[in-house]
Every structure is written in C-alpha cells, then in structure tokens.
C-alpha cells in the first residue's frame, strides 16, 4: 500500500527528522510560555485621571473672574501636541488625561487685566482620586515710572 501512494521506505527517515524538529519547536514554545507567562488580556486604554479646575478667582479679593479663556493642551513627553481645547468664561472645568505619565497636560488661564497663569501636569498618580486645581490670577502690575 505504501508503494501505491508513492511513499518509499527512505522517506520515513526524512519524515521522522521533520517531526522531531516540529516537536522541538513546540516544546520550546511551551517552555517559553511557562517561564515568561502569557497574557490573555486584550490591550486596553490607559487608565484616565480626572483634573478639576475648581475655581478661577482674583488672588487678592478671591472674587470669581468670569471673563477668561482656559486653554488645555495635551502633549507627548517629546513636546508633540496631541490636542488642544479652549473654553471661554469658565468658573470651573473638568477634564481627563492618561494617569500613566505618557501625556503632559498644560493648563493656561488668561483674563483681561491679569497675568497669564499656566501649569503643566505630567505625573503618574492615583486615578481614583481627582486632582483639584484652584486658579488664582494676579492683577497686571503697572510699569510706570
């Protein structure tokens, strides 16, 4: 029957050698999984942290500054801008960013008659607890004299 299928006895030696190589590769793969583990989890998005601007006020009087522009700019650690958002006349604001340190968030607040306020946030922090920021703007000082 083997001769009817075109199989020669010497082919068995080649087939056996080929099977040994395949078996060795399977054993190596299994050992690497046992030694190094295998993740069955699908890739997920980075855990997001919440940043809350709780107030925008005059530093001296603590009165709200309703006429303002808030700019949020997300960047990579290398400085490449990922996205920018701008909001007008905010008394408070909430946003999110990855909590794994892969992104830097610049918060910039401007208002007529006040110095520009800016803060950069890039940190690994507890994403379960929001970060609260109070913005206190200082009046522009006169340059007379």
Number of strands: 7
**Global geometry:** rod-shaped
Q: What is the CATH topology classification name of the domain at 48-137?
A: Immunoglobulin-like
- What pattern of helices and strands is seen along the backbone? HEEEEEEE
Bin the strand percentage.
35-45%
As an assembly, this protein is single chain
What do we call the CATH homologous superfamily of the domain at 48-137?
Carboxypeptidase-like, regulatory domain
- Sheet with the most strands, sense and barrel status: 4 strands, antiparallel
Question: What would the keywords be for this entry?
Answer:
145 residues; alpha+beta; Immunoglobulin-like; three-stranded mixed sheet; 1 helix; 7 strands; 35% strand
Task: Explain what this protein looks like in three dimensions.
The chain has one helix at 11-36, and strands spanning 48-58, 69-75, 81-88, 93-98, 104-110, 117-121, 131-137. The chain is of the alpha+beta class. It has a domain at 48-137: Sandwich (Immunoglobulin-like), CATH 2.60.40.1120. The chain has a 4-stranded antiparallel beta sheet with strand order 3-2-5-6, with no helix packed on it. Strand 2 and strand 3 (81-88) form a beta hairpin. The protein is rod-shaped and about 85 Å long. The termini are far apart. The mean pLDDT is 80.
Question: Could you write a compact summary of the structure shown?
Answer:
The chain has one helix spanning 11-36, and strands at 48-58, 69-75, 81-88, 93-98, 104-110, 117-121, 131-137. The chain is of the alpha+beta class and 145 residues long.
């Amino acid at each position: 029957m083997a001769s009817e299928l075109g199989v020669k006895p010497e082919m068995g030696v080649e087939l056996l050698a080929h099977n040994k190589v395949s078996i060795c590769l399977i054993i190596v793969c299994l050992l690497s999984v046992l030694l190094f583990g295998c993740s069955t989890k699908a890739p997920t998005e980075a855990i997001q942290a919440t940043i809350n601007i709780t107030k925008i006020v005059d530093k001296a009087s603590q009165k709200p500054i309703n006429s303002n522009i808030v700019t949020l700019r997300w960047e990579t650690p290398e400085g490449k801008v990922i996205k920018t958002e701008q909001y007008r006349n905010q008394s408070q604001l909430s946003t999110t960013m990855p909590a794994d340190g892969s992104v830097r968030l610049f918060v910039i607040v401007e208002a007529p008659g006040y110095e520009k306020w800016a803060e950069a946030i890039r940190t690994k922090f507890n994403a379960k607890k929001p970060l609260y920021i109070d913005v206190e703007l200082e009046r522009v000082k006169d340059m007379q004299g």
